[in-house]
Specification:
alpha/beta
Length: 368
Amino acid sequence: MKVPFVDLGLLHREIEDELRDVFSRVLANSSFVLGPEVEQFEQDFSAYCGSAQCIAVNTGTAAIHLVLAALGIGPGDEVITVPHTFIATAEAITAVGATPVFIDIDPTSYCMEPGGIEAAITSRTRAIIPVHLYGQVADMDPILAVANHYGIPVVEDACQAHGAEYKGRRAGSLGVAGCFSFYPGKNLGALGEGGAVTTNDLELAKCIRMWRDHGSRKKYEHQFAGHNMRMEGLQGGILAVKLKYLDRWNRQRRQAADDYAISLGGSQLILPSEISYGRHVYHLYVVQADDRDGLRRQLAEAGVESGLHYPIPLHLQEAYRHLGYNKGAFPVTERLTDHILSLPIYPGISAEAIAHVAAEVQESCNVS
């Protein structure tokens, strides 16, 4: 049985007519960059997240980049984040000329370990970026407590956490700003690239809007040299349609995670844990296996696609070798990256597919 890692065709078939309507509207209005479709999505998504403002941009990487730029962070400054994330988190820090400072992750949530923050703070620290990884929000209360004590803004990397909650509040409403990616495979994905910033700070929102549009408040009048990081009209309209289905799709992901937990009981794998403070939306279903590579080979032979998120931590990447971190610097992260494997999960994945994946996992574990 073939089980894809993600099935976007299945996701889009049920809303295909609505998506075609968006294309027709954008074509009729010639609203190809920003415009009414994007504005409607910004209103809808800010309301969904529980934030006052949403600024739609072209990627999740740009969202983080523009928040840091709008906060005035640049060369000589430091930003604390984690080494277990996609490179975009650190890349945005580098893009404004600042230096990433890494701290380790919690072994259960896979998110930032709040206890490591204070020791990493220096006179140059200008922001903290916790990553809400795999669909689960970091433990924000202690992170915010330390940040507030030192007067440091917290920027949420919520690129994998659309609809995830922390103590009843949605990701993107907890820090000074939340940053989202709408890459097609995300819980809320565009039909191409897309991103957004959510914030309750109206002045910050104004500044980010200028940064995304050449430093301009008004056409051909530029307060500073910004960037071209605007969302396309088509993507705004697509996202507004898909946002209506996000909660249902997240419930389906949660049900699939429950089914995996039952089917993989006794498998010797370490399964994902939903931390008591929040609501996990399972952007990825990440397990730990002693023989991760062997398990991945067996799954592939059985027609099951899997993923590695992420096999090389950022502090050991060639791109960040200059920071001077050595192997062993972040033991929780490094152990995790040697054992993690992402199993297929997506809205509409069948019980039969989950059973097939689980059976192959159980067989691999029994053999090993």
